[in-house]
Specification:
By secondary structure, this protein is α+β, with helices and mostly antiparallel strands. The protein has 2 helices and 4 strands. It is globular, with a radius of gyration of 16 Å. The structure holds coenzyme A (COA).
Amino acid sequence: MVLPNDANRLGNLLGGRLMHMMDIAAAIAASRHTNRVCVTASVDELHFHHPIRIGEVVILQASVNRAFHTSLEVGVRVTKEDLLTGKRTHTNSAYLTFVAIDEEGRPVPVPLIVPQTNEERRRYRDAARRRRQRLLHRGKR
Ligand SMILES: CC(C)(COP(=O)(O)OP(=O)(O)OC[C@H]1O[C@@H](n2cnc3c(N)ncnc32)[C@H](O)[C@@H]1OP(=O)(O)O)[C@@H](O)C(=O)NCCC(=O)NCCS
């Protein structure tokens, strides 16, 4: 639930606070899949479509879309819920890349993903396309 300490002077959840929650939700999904410490390597574009107000509930759903060699893509979907009306609104989504590391901080191979449903297969396919784009951008810096 968004509390006053999480909000700006308009009573809206701070963007940075939401990014923090998304990072943690994604890290949990990545660590559950790998049973490893996973660090955030990159976050794709993040757009805030709707403000989340004090008193509203933030629902974060994270899924591992695809594992590559030592990295994996996690998608996080954020929904806000008004407890008085029960209305839920999708506020934003993002794709984060995590890398599994060993005790020395070196990348280690991660278990593969075997998509089962149509939805999982779509996410799996799309993750490969997004990976090409982000590695292209990484190379430009
Ligand atoms: C992420 C990190 C472990 C990668 O280490 P590295 O020595 O650059 O490793 P490599 O170049 O061998 O890449 C390892 C994997 O990470 C992926 N990767 C590295 N940088 C990436 C980026 N910016 N975006 C997406 N994937 C990236 C590579 O594609 C590779 O994936 P693959 O094995 O599945 O093909 C290292 O850069 C690091 O520790 N960064 C700091 C992480 C951190 O502290 N995050 C918290 C926020 S500051």
